[in-house]
């Protein structure tokens, strides 16, 4: 009788071990998503950040990166704003969240708010981030956008 129990337990262990290895930890998923994000493979990163967000919905990091991926992969440019807003309202949000929130607002013609977010990003910008070189240009675009939009009305 004990032999059958050992064989059963052994078989269960052998059969379930591949499934246990297939599940990646949150840390592994985050590392992979961040790598894809930095490579600007937003479509692939979007899927992983979607999973990460379902694990940790309160993470400002996941919210802003998910929003950024959505901004670059979806036709709806308004939807990501709620993820950015959630992220930047959290004091532990990374500075880069302000840049992407600004970009989302910018693309939704909310130029004054976009400028404010870009300016919040500027003093904390990591000079290695390519976005830091784009901030002044985006602020200038917003100023031009305000002028153009006001001339249509």
Descriptive overview:
The protein has 153 residues and is an all-alpha fold. Helices cover 76% and strands 0% of the residues. It has eight helices and no strands. It is elongated.
What would the keywords be for this entry?
153 residues; mainly alpha
| Radius of gyration, taken over Cα atoms and rounded to an integer in Å | 22 Å
Low-confidence stretches: 17-22
| Main beta-sheet strand count, sense and barrel state | none
Please tally the β strands and state the result: 0
Structural class: mainly alpha
Q: Give the integer mean of the pLDDT values.
A: 87
Overall geometric form: elongated
Summary?
The chain has 8 helices and no strands. The chain has 153 residues and is an all-alpha fold.
Write the layout of secondary structure elements.
Elements: H1 2-22, H2 26-38, H3 42-55, H4 60-73, H5 80-88, H6 96-107, H7 111-121, H8 130-152
Helix pairs in contact: 2-3, 3-4, 4-5, 4-6, 5-6, 6-7, 6-8, 7-8
């Amino acid at each position: 009788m004990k032999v059958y129990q050992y064989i059963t337990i052994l078989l269960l262990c052998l059969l379930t071990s591949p499934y246990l290895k297939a599940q990646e930890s949150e840390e592994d998923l985050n590392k992979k998503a961040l790598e894809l994000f930095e490579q600007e493979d937003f479509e692939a990163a979007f899927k992983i950040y979607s999973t990460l967000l379902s694990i940790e919905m309160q993470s400002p990091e996941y919210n802003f990166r998910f929003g950024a991926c959505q901004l670059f992969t979806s036709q709806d440019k308004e939807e990501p704003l709620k993820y950015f807003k959630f992220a930047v309202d959290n004091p532990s949000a990374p500075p880069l969240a302000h840049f992407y929130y600004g970009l989302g607002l910018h693309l939704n013609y909310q130029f004054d708010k976009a400028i404010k977010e870009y300016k919040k990003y500027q003093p904390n910008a990591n000079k290695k981030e390519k976005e830091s070189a784009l901030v002044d240009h985006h602020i200038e675009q917003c100023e031009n956008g305000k002028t153009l939009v006001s001339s249509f009305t």
